Amino acid sequence: MPRLCDSREQTSSGFAPLATPDARILILGSLPGRTSLAAHEYYAHQQNVFWRIMEAVFDIKGTYSERCRALVECNIALWDVLRASVRPGSMDADIQQASAVANDFGSFLNEHSHIQSILFNGKKAEQLFLRMVPPEHYRACRLSGLPSTSPAFAAMSYAAKLNAWKEAITVHC
Questions:
Q1: What is the rounded CA–CA span in Å between residue 19 and residue 57?
Q2: What is the reported pTM?
Q3: Could you give all domains of the chain from N- to C-terminal order, each with its CATH number?
């Protein structure tokens, strides 16, 4: 049974999108975890393999700002499904649905009209998006769920995750 929201619990708020107007692929997570929020960086947890996969696929290296700049130069946008939610800890399973607020995808996709594909970093991001975002906002986009890059998803090896991400990005480029 899901927990009820406790008004004493703090709401986590996500980041602004990382995108340029000519982005063609949007990668969505659910909501930044504690480590990312503390660092003010997408996928900051040392064991999250997101940036390692981006390095393998696009040869993206360097500081966080250099990696972000290189990613948008590859026409990739990065954001999260949720703008805010109560979530004790960093696990997607702890996101309290009653407090979840989706980002404004209607405006975002209007302003980024070249986006053709939305890739979900994990099942929870995909589930939240499909539950909370009206289909008219994304009808023109292809949607693909990908294995989570989170260390919490240890059921799949790094090599298998990398292969799935490479294949999806190649198909959607």
A1: 18
A2: 0.91
A3: 11-172 (3.40.470.10)
Check: CB of residue 12 under 8 Å from CB of residue 32.
Answer: yes
Q: Identify the CA nearest to 97 among candidates 5, 11, 7, 1.
A: 5
Distance of alpha carbon 170 from alpha carbon 173, whole angstroms: 5
> Helix, strand, or coil here: 113?
coil
pLDDT tens string 100-125: 999 999 999 999 999 999 999 999 99
* Confidence band for 28, pLDDT divided at 50, 70 and 90: very high
Task: Find tokens 């979840």 and name the residue.
Answer: 100
Going through 47-173 in order, the beta strands assigned E by DSSP cover 76-80, 82-86, 101-102, 117-121, 142-146
